[in-house]
Amino acid sequence: MDFSRLKQAVPSSPAFILDRQQVEASLQALAHLRRQSGCRVLYSIKSLPLSAVLQWVEPCVDGFSVSSLFEARLVDEITSRGGSLHITTPGLRVQEIAEISTRCSHISFNSLTQAQRLLPEVEIRCSPGLRINPKLSFADDARYDPCRRHSKLGAALQDVAVAPLLRHIDGLHFHSTFASRSFQPLLATVQHLQEVLGKRLHGLRWLNLGGGYLFDQMTDSAAPFVEMVMRLRESFALTVYIEPGNAVVGRAGYLLATVIDCFESDGKTVAVLDVSVNHHPEVFEYQRKPSLQEESPDGAHAAILAGSTCLAGDLFGEYRFDAPLQIGQRLVFQHVGAYSLVKAQRFNGYNLPDVYALDADRFELLQQYSYRQYQEQWLPMASE
Ligand SMILES: Cc1ncc(COP(=O)(O)O)c(C=O)c1O
Q1: Looking at residues 95-106, what average pLDDT do you find?
Q2: Which of 26, 47, 153 to mutate to test the pocket of ligand 1 (most atoms within 8 A of CB)?
Q3: Where are the domains of the chain?
Q4: Mean pLDDT of the chain
Q5: How many Å lie between the centroid of ligand 1 and the Cα of residue 245?
Q6: What's domain 38-244's superfamily in CATH?
Q7: How far is the CA of 377 from the centre of ligand 1 (A)?
Q8: Which of ligand 1's atoms lies nearest the C-alpha of 146?
Q9: pTM assigned to the model
């Protein structure tokens, strides 16, 4: 990425920029795994449901995975509907199940009770499955550990193993970690699954291994993963799916911001930006410091980068720079493609960033929000 060009060429700030080349590079890594192992790849749109991304990704994946009726409708509208469409969510509503199971090819119920209540309502063309909770924790923070104690995500594997319902479903789904750069959690989880379910795996048609892996940045060899998927396919005749989100878009997203004020506070420099943590809420949710392109770890000048809202904790963190920050200077947060724009909101009435695609050296404006959309959210519905 040519950052000085990005800062000069993008007309507006704040801006969210998605680099098509980087999305395609990440898809290459997934295509390689798919070719070697025969697994099927779905793009989990919850990480970034931008229509341009769905269109770029569609030719390179076997389908999409969604978490709600709205996401399913969006995939239907934007893509050619050729591939699979998987859904799993604790939030299935009885009044939506008919439409969901018409639009989706696979549904993984989140609990045994959800399955018992809603299985009879599922349309015949939709393949029913169950999300299991393997109860093997790999995430170091309970806030994003699906296998935490008293988890709401998936039916306990031990309970599923003895549930009569197992005879009435076609597949299993699990998603058990977050941003892992190692295949080890996945290998350990599948091994555990095989130990608990044993021959009962023969009665199933598919297994969805979820997301949570940065398949484009793995630090260990893919060979054991490839071998594991081939074994599942050959020994149990299972169709094996993975459904990454972050691995597809995470590294492709940039948030361009401008310094709009700069002052001293109790002996430290505070630089106020024209963005806020509400444009990248995981900064606040998980107290993460996002990577900044301009940061120079040994730089002589430190500054706290602060968001524009009234919240005292609306801070990106303290960064070091080679030169003091200037009002009007542009800065770029990097690797913010996943779970940023999709969670962004307009607290304090600060607008969402303009959205650009960087495609073949050209910045194309995809979305520009206006006061009208803010107003629509808060004014009463117009009476007919
Ligand atoms: C069920 C399920 N599948 C897939 C994903 C995508 O995960 P990631 O973006 O970490 O690959 C998530 C993320 O929360 C998920 O809950």
Answers
A1: 97
A2: 47
A3: 3-17+250-378, 38-244
A4: 96
A5: 6
A6: Alanine racemase (3.20.20.10)
A7: 28
A8: 16
A9: 0.97
* 268-302 confidence digits (pLDDT tens): 999 999 999 999 999 999 999 999 999 999 999 99
Written as six digits, the tokens of 109 are 């119920």
User: What's the 326 CA to ligand 1 centre distance in angstroms?
Assistant: 39
Mutate to test the pocket of ligand 1, among 44, 138, 208 (most ligand atoms within 8 A of CB): 44
Quick check: 110 and 210 in contact, CB under 8 A? no
Q: What atom in ligand 1 is closest to the CA of residue 247? A: 11
Q: Would you say the C-alpha torsion 274, 277, 282, 287 has a positive or negative sign?
A: positive
Give the residue, by CA position, lying nearest to ligand 1 atom 4: 211
> So what's the pLDDT on residue 230?
98
pLDDT at residue 382 tops 80: no
| pLDDT the model gives residue 381 | 81
The CA 68 to ligand 1 mean position distance, Å, reads 13
CA of 100 from ligand 1 middle (Å) equals 19
CATH superfamily of 3-17+250-378: Lyase, Ornithine Decarboxylase; Chain A, domain 1 (2.40.37.10)
Contacts of residue 285, Cβ cutoff 8 Å, sequence gap at least 6: 143
Q: Which residues form the pocket of ligand 1, taking CB atoms under 6 Å from any ligand atom?
A: 44, 46-47, 65, 88, 175, 178, 210-212, 243-247, 338
pLDDT over 70 at 204, yes or no: yes
- Looking at residue 383, its pLDDT comes to 54
Q: Which atom of ligand 1 is nearest to the CA of 67?
A: 1
Q: Which sign does the torsion angle of CA 340, 262, 330, 26 carry?
A: negative
Distance 177 CA to ligand 1 centre (A): 8
Three-state DSSP at 232 gives: helix
> What's at 177, amino acid-wise?
T
pLDDT for res 362: 94
Say which range, 104-108, 137-141, 221-225, has the weakest mean pLDDT: 137-141
- What is the full DSSP assignment across 303-360? EEEE-SSS-TT-EEEEEEESS---TT-EEEEES--SSSGGG---GGGPPPPEEEEEET
Q: Which amino acid is at 62?
A: D
Please determine, for residue 53, whether its predicted confidence score (pLDDT) is greater than 90: yes
The DSSP output letter for 381 is P
